[in-house]
Design goal:
The complex is a heterotrimer.
Chain A: H1 16-47, E1 59-60, H2 64-92, E2 100-107, E3 110-115, E4 120-122, E5 124-128, E6 132-139, E7 144-148, E8 153-157, E9 163-168, E10 173-179, E11 192-197, H3 199-207, H4 215-225, E12 250-252, E13 258-260, H5 263-271, H6 294-306
Parallel strand pairs in A: 2-6, 5-11
Antiparallel strand pairs in A: 2-3, 3-4, 6-9, 7-8, 7-10, 10-11, 12-13
Chain B: H1 27-31, H2 36-64, H3 75-94, H4 97-110, H5 119-141, H6 155-159, H7 164-191, H8 204-236, H9 249-283, H10 290-304, H11 319-347, H12 356-379, H13 381-387, H14 391-421, H15 427-454, H16 468-498, E1 530-531, E2 543-544
Helix pairs in contact in B: 2-3, 2-4, 2-5, 2-16, 4-7, 4-8, 4-14, 5-7, 7-8, 8-9, 8-10, 9-10, 9-11, 9-12, 9-14, 10-11, 11-12, 12-14, 12-15, 14-15, 15-16
Chain C: E1 4-5, H1 26-61, H2 63-70, H3 75-101, H4 104-134, H5 150-186, H6 196-220
Classes of the chains: A alpha+beta, B mainly alpha, C mainly alpha.
Chain lengths: ~350, ~550, ~230
């Protein structure tokens, strides 16, 4: 499939052809202007070459019309670049609502993946063809960057924050995965593969896994293990906000701000609880920084997300996310994008 | 007083004549000089040393990249090589080179002054530069730094095991050299212009250095304090960028790029000023659109401060911030385009000479155009996502820094060599080198555009096999490029002793600096000149206005 | 080329040994010195600006933690220091005034007073720093902050020490400058025809004072009204 000397990367995602089309447009304009300048200079240099040391050409002072023309026309052309680029970027930042979710933890110098149903992988990510995939990513140490050239997508993976990205693969195959933000000694070794499989093959691959539990149920276990439900409960003994139906909703904070409960907020609330204390509650939540790994944090995030998808069970703890793909709230967009709350659970 | 046509090249008698080079002798007279011209030569020597040091690192990098495996040096060493290549080239060569060598030498002369406003501060700024350089050299000798010249946190503050603090101190110190140079230029240009020399009679070289100085003075302090914060965090375990303390590594990126983007215009604006001088002299014509070229320098200086976020499109800043930086980044390209068009139009109906400085000017215009246009690819945010942190970026900035700035630097050095040294360089060898540089440069860096779009990330010690052919091409080009730089070093030094003596104005150029002997006396002008006309007046008779 | 005439511009000195050889007149020299100091002060604004930006970002992110941490600073000493600096700016302005009038004794008196006030400021800061050290509020391994917001508080204190430390370094340099001025004033160097060094040093001193005027409320006075 790969030549020994490729000059152009394969297109393997829905966005790749759009990016390539813009690229070719830019190349065309670049060639046009480069040739225009180069040939003009060549022409002038030859036609007006100095034939004697004492020759003195006419002055040619300037031309307001030309100056305006060659300022305005390039400006308009750059607007076209901007609009096209912006439109692609918007698409890159709006994951479809039916995307399957995979969590990614980057650390020096490897990529750790965990599928929603619990299947884990290291440095090699299996995804289904023709299905939107949303990655929820965090770093355990320094800044890394998740880059798949064939998808034309890249996103920096940060410590202390959650980054999200999505793609939909359009060609089966095996594609390079690179870390694209310098991260230390083995930066160039922090590479792997994304394996795009036929959906049927993907399902059997998933099923053939060692039956590890789903992200959300692992998160539920951590929730119980760290006694989170001591304070986060739906009854009157609650000392913290109820987490059911929380994900994706607006939250009013003690200092008057209003934010949306997205992945970053959930993660931050575990490691730095008093950064955003919810209005009406005391800032008494202890921090779990150092007590829970990045993976664990992403599992807890997945668990809290799952509390917004299923009806609350009598024990006050929602059941884990099932394997079938249900509606996923668009909680990863910036705070200005709103998803109307779908559950009536009290906060 | 100055000839408008070039006098025939004549071998001048070897009479001893007192000039700035021979007026006093001895090491002390050079190390304690206040003469801006001698200080320029002190800078010339030091930036040349750093250039070849940075070049040595580049040679090792390209040797390693001949093969896909990391087999020449260890990963840690490779990471240090690209870091030191960047640090040395950016802070110790590209930022000071044209301003501190050519700017220092020429600005007083171009405005009819005897020196800069603050000659002692000028000398101090050289010592500060050398001091910062010594810190960095110490760090290199003791194993170097491996954070990348961009020092991203938390790698640089918490994880790197290399000499981050010493290097940071070196850069911090050298930053003050830049600030003082900029300050000196601003005050000089404001207060010491000769009588009759209004702003719009200034040579464009002066305009571009004025704009550069504004950036130096406003931007450099920000990186200084950013480096200070990194050093303080690393040394005292304070938490400013440390996410474990709730700090934000992205804040570092904002602060870093707030300087480092304008910094690239510190590197290219002086080069553009040189090109304006070369194109007018070697077309023997007034610049087309003087005011537009002058104002474009100022526009670039202002806009350069508004675009830093385009280095951070994939780092997690908000979508809307990204869009704003994208549109502003397109805007900052327009004044540069205006310059390119004006330079080209200057050649229309000119009298074009192919002397070496003009060859470098041609090279600059062509390669800067390509480099600048590839910047459009990066400003288009949806496309930048794919090519960010790949060899596409590496190719883009080398086209501008090497294909642009270094070519203009070489052009300027050759153009003003007779004035600086009193000697002519050998034209044949000079043209040969210019050609070698042009070919070597394109062979080195053009394949990198292709590599980048293919997805080869930058700062990679080892890479997948299918990228090897392009890497080999690039390394082959680098070996040619290296030759192109070594040859001028040899013949320029040779010419100082054995070159033909130069007349006051071997190129028949306008400009106050050509009104003095070559080399000039220490005080430049015996009496302060009075300026009564515009610059670049090659054709005193009636002037055609186009369209 | 720009036509030049064999110029009639005299380069004679204004009779003053203070005119440096590369300037054409005392006025030009004065303009240059003054502009030079103003440009330098602009760079200083940008220099401190980076720290103010970091402060702004983190304060807006952790407003309650910052307010809590700010209460651990000694507002009495801070206010005292603010008064000390404002008075020192007065004495500095009087020194410049005296220099313009050529009153040698007054120049020295006011310069020394400014230096003494500056030294007082630094002494008080040293006392404050020592207190913070004993209270375990110096960021790093020994940092202990009572209350739930230890981590943002550590950021606050990191910024506190960096910003006031940088300010103190500028004060020390300022006192050094004033020392040089005192030594020169003793030799009778300054008078109506030439007092530029005193003037530009005054600009520098006032600038350092103004930085403190910003630092004081931003560091010491957050959330005081809440108590």
């Amino acid at each position: 499939m790969r030549e020994t000397f490729p000059l152009f990367p394969q297109e393997a995602s829905t966005l790749a052809p759009r990016v390539d089309a813009l690229y070719f447009y830019l190349i065309a304009v670049t060639i046009f202007f480069s040739l225009l300048i180069a040939l003009s200079i060549l022409y002038f240099a030859i036609k007006y070459r100095r034939r004697s040391e004492s020759e003195l050409p006419h002055g040619v002072e300037g031309s307001l019309k030309l100056e305006i023309a060659w300022s305005v026309i390039p400006l308009l052309i750059t607007f076209s670049f901007f609009i096209w680029g912006a439109s692609i970027f918007f698409a890159m930042n709006r994951p479809p609502s039916d995307a399957i979710e995979i969590s990614v933890v980057a650390k020096q110098w490897m990529w750790k993946f965990q599928h929603a149903d619990g299947q884990r992988e290291i440095n090699e990510l299996h995804v289904p063809l023709g299905q939107a995939v949303k990655l929820t990513m965090a770093s355990e140490d320094v800044i890394h960057s998740f880059y798949v050239p064939a998808f034309r997508m890249k996103r920096d993976v940060l410590p202390g924050k959650v980054a999200t990205y999505w793609f939909e693969a359009t060609r089966p195959g095996r594609y390079h995965l690179f870390c694209a933000e310098y991260c230390g000694t083995k930066h160039s070794g922090m590479i792997g593969w994304v394996e795009v499989m036929d959906p049927v093959d993907f399902q059997s691959w998933l099923a053939g896994g060692t039956g590890s539990e789903s992200l959300a149920s692992a998160g539920a276990k951590l929730f119980a293990q760290h006694a989170c439900n001591t304070c986060h409960r739906p009854d009157s003994l609650a000392r913290g906000p109820n987490l059911e139906g929380l994900f994706g909703k607006k939250v009013q904070l003690q200092d008057g701000r209003t934010i949306v409960a997205d992945e970053s907020y959930i993660r931050e609330s575990i490691v730095m609880p008093n950064a955003k204390t919810v209005a009406g509650f005391q800032p008494i939540m202890p921090t779990f920084q150092g007590l829970i790994s990045e993976e664990g944090l992403l599992q807890l995030v997945a668990y809290v997300k799952s509390l917004s998808k299923a009806a609350p069970s009598p024990e006050g703890v929602a059941p884990p996310l099932s394997k079938s793909r249900g509606q996923t709230p668009q909680g990863s967009a910036p705070a200005s994008v709103q998803e109307p709350p779908r559950s009536e659970a009290k906060k | 007083m100055s000839a408008v046509t070039a006098p025939p090249a004549v071998d001048l008698p070897a009479e001893p004549r007192v000039n700035y080079l021979n007026s006093t002798y001895g090491l002390k007279s050079w190390l304690l000089t206040r003469d801006h011209k001698r200080i320029a030569l002190l800078y010339l020597a030091s930036v040349t040393v750093f250039f070849f040091l940075g070049g040595l690192f580049a040679v090792l990098i390209r040797l390693e990249l001949l093969t896909p495996a990391g087999d020449l040096v260890q990963s840690e060493t490779y990471n240090k090589l690209f870091t030191m290549h960047g640090v040395v080239m950016v802070f110790f060569f590209l930022i000071p080179a044209i301003p501190a060598v050519l700017g220092n030498f020429l600005i007083p002369m171009m405005i009819g002054a005897k020196d800069l406003a603050f000659p002692r501060l000028n000398l101090l700024s050289w010592y500060i530069y050398v001091g910062g350089g010594l810190f960095t050299l110490w760090s290199i000798v003791h194993g170097g730094v491996d954070t990348g010249w961009t020092f991203y946190t938390p790698y640089s503050t918490t994880y790197s095991n290399s000499h981050v603090i010493v290097t940071a101190v070196g850069i911090f110190i050298t930053g003050f050299s830049s600030i003082l140079t900029g300050l000196n230029f601003i005050v000089t240009i404001h207060t010491m212009r000769a009588p009759g020399l209004t702003w719009f009679r200034l040579p464009l070289f002066v305009w571009s250095h004025y704009a550069t100085s504004l950036i130096m003075v406003l931007g450099t302090p920000v990186i200084a304090v950013t480096i200070l914060m990194v050093g303080v965090e690393r040394l005292f375990h304070l938490g400013i960028f440390d996410p474990r303390l709730g700090g934000d590594p992205i804040l570092f990126q904002h602060l870093f790029w707030f300087y480092s983007h304008p910094a690239v215009y510190i590197m290219v604006l002086p080069a553009m000023g040189v090109v304006s001088e070369l194109v007018t002299t070697f077309s023997r014509k007034n610049i087309f659109g003087y005011k537009f070229v002058a104002f474009s320098s100022m526009a670039i200086a202002v806009l350069s401060f508004l675009v830093w976020g385009h280095h951070m499109f994939v780092s997690g800043q908000s979508v809307y911030a990204g869009l704003i930086f994208s549109i502003l980044s397109f805007l900052v390209a327009i004044p540069s385009a205006v310059k390119v068009f004006n330079w080209t139009a200057t050649m229309y109906k000119g009298s074009i000479s192919y002397r070496t400085p003009m060859l470098y000017a041609f090279g600059f215009i062509g390669l800067f155009t390509i480099g600048g246009l590839t910047g459009m690819f990066l400003a288009a945010i949806g496309l930048d996502v794919h090519v960010h942190d790949t060899y596409f970026i590496v190719a883009h900035f080398h086209y501008i820094m090497v294909g642009g700035t270094i070519m203009a630097y070489m052009g300027g050095i050759h153009y003003w060599w007779p004035k600086i040294s009193g000697k002519l360089y050998p034209e044949g060898w000079a043209r040969f080198s210019a050609l070698v540089i042009f070919v070597g440069f394109n062979l080195t860096f053009f394949p990198q555009f292709i590599l980048g779009y293919l997805g080869m990330p930058r700062r990679y010690h080892a890479y997948p096999e299918e990228f090897q052919v392009l890497n080999v091409m690039s390394s082959a080009g680098a070996s040619i490029l290296g030759v192109g730089y070594v040859v001028p070093l040899i013949y320029l030094i040779w010419s100082m002793r054995y070159g033909k003596a130069a007349s006051a104005n071997p190129w028949g150029s306008t400009g106050l600096e050509w009104d003095t002997p070559s080399p000039p006396p220490t005080e430049n002008f015996a009496v302060t000149p009075v300026v009564t006309g515009d610059p670049y007046q090659y054709s005193p008779e009636e002037v055609e206005v186009v369209g | 080329m720009a036509d030049t005439a064999a110029s009639a511009a005299p380069t004679g000195h204004a009779g003053s040994r203070d005119l440096q050889h590369h300037f054409d007149s005392m006025e030009q020299q004065r303009d240059a010195s003054s502009l030079g100091m103003w440009v330098f002060l602009v760079t200083e604004i940008l220099f401190f600006g980076g720290l103010f930006l970091a402060y702004t970002v983190y304060r807006s992110r952790y407003p309650l933690a910052f307010a809590e941490a700010s209460r651990h600073l000694d507002i009495t000493l801070g206010t005292f220091n603010t008064a000390v600096l404002i008075i020192s700016s007065l004495t500095m302005a009087l020194a410049v005034y005296s220099a313009a009038l050529g009153r040698r004794k007054a120049i020295i008196l006011f310069l020394l007073a400014t230096m003494a006030l500056g030294g007082t400021f630094l002494g008080v800061k040293a006392v404050e720093y020592t207190h913070k050290f004993h209270d375990h509020l110096v960021p790093g391994a020994g940092f202990r902050f009572p209350g739930p917001d230890a981590r943002p508080a550590e950021i606050f204190f990191s910024l506190y020490f960096t910003m006031t430390g940088l300010h103190a370094a500028h004060m020390i340099i300022g006192i050094g400058l004033l020392t040089v001025l005192v030594l020169q004033a003793r030799k009778g160097r300054y008078g109506p025809g030439y007092y530029t060094p005193v003037e530009v040093s005054g600009l520098y001193w006032h600038f350092v004072d103004i930085v403190w005027i910003f630092l004081f409320p931003l560091l010491y006075l957050i959330g005081r009204h809440l108590h």
